[in-house]
Amino acid sequence: MEATGRTALYVYSVLFILTVSTTTEVSSDFIHIPSLVHHGIEGKPLLLSVETRFPLADAEIQGTWSHTRPSGSRTTLVTFTKQATITDMMYRNNLRFEKPNVSLTIKKLGQDDEGDYHLSLNIEFHNKTGLVIKEERTVHVTVDVPVSTPVIEKNPSYAVVEDKANVTLTCSVERGTRVVFQWLRDNILLGPSDRFHFSRGKATLLISPVRKEDKGTYHCVASNPVSPGRHSRSVELNVYYGPYNLEVNSGQGLRTGEVFTINPGELAFFECQADSNPPNSYVWISKSSNSTHVITEGPRLEVLSYRLAQAEEYLCRAFNNVTQKQDEAQFTLVVASLGTGKEKHTQEGSSVFPLAAITVCSLFIIGCMLLVFLRRTCHPKRVLMSIYNRPLSEQKKPHRSGHEDATEDFGIYEFVSIPGKMESAQVSCRSLARLESVQDMHTTIYDVIRHDPETPSHSLLE
């Protein structure tokens, strides 16, 4: 009997499920909610928008809007059909049901309006009597107060010494809910580290211990879901540190490692520098034999090399009066002749070189000018071309040799050739200029004289 009862119960359950499935259909295609999360501002209205994707004239609808608070209590706000709407009397002054798309507007948000809003909608189309389509959606709503400008408080408010103090920075706002804070140093976002510790929400930053690199400008940024980041005013964190990276430098002489070499009689200056806050106090100490003595105080040392008989050791000591830390840098000063030998030869050569260059250039220019002058005045080819280019009338004119009577020039002449470029140049210039007609460059003086007198032979006999 017990087995038969269990079988009957199972059969009835299956039949019930089949019956429900034939009368109710769940779908997600008939309504659409653009946003399932809304961040509302306290005191402002908020619309829970719903888009219906079916023709309302062809269907009957029935549904509810309900509100579940963060505490878990649930309240039905609105019950509606296509023809009527019933709003809970406790909320009707703050709610407005939007027909025909079943949206809901909260007129003025308060903190009690936070939570989940649930829409349950049944749809029955006229051409499908008995078939009910059920749609359900849930919208989450938060209500926040906009954030005011944040303010930073630093503790302690004065400068601190590195490795000996901690600093606490606190960021606060007068207004705002669900505020999230961020911290920046010199506009660089800070995160947790071995020395940087944040409280929940990052409202407080603890730096423990403070180091040199923590020195800078700090500010915080406050934001929440309804407010963009609001920046606070900057706060300076001053850290006393050092001395670090102590160095001794000089612009004179030659440096090799920790040894400075200067010329005899040269005045040398040395600078002692270190990274420190506040600035260091400097002391220069001379070390000789087994004794030391203070030369001067301050970052600058002046040494006259002629007062040094031999190499001498010096020491620069930097001391920070606040951190009570000090550092030392030691160096050796040697007096020796620099700038001799090769440098002297180079200097002499450099002084002679400009004079030699000027002399060569001047001689070259003078030679070019002489060459141009000679070519323009005594060039054989140019003389011959001037004779060839004369008019015929000028060529036949009687030549005047400067003698009234040609008989005085009559006689036997002998051509004498003297080798040499200068003589040949003179002969060509004097003889070729008197030619009436020249056949070639080898015309002799005898030929010139023979052609010169144009008087008939009988006049010579008389």
Automatic annotation (TrEMBL):
Lyase listed as a keyword: no
PROSITE patterns: IG_LIKE (PS50835)
Residue ranges annotated for the Ig-like domain, each copy included: 150-238, 243-332
Compartments reported by the entry: Cytoplasm; Endomembrane system
GO cellular component, one term: cytoplasm
Its membrane topology: Single-pass type I membrane protein
Highest taxon, organism lineage: Eukaryota
Keywords: Cell cycle, Cytoplasm, Disulfide bond, Glycoprotein, Immunoglobulin domain, Membrane, Signal, Transmembrane, Transmembrane helix
Location (main, coarse): cytoplasm
Signal peptide: 1-24
TM annotation in the entry: 352-374
Protein name (record): HEPACAM family member 2
Source organism: Seriola lalandi dorsalis
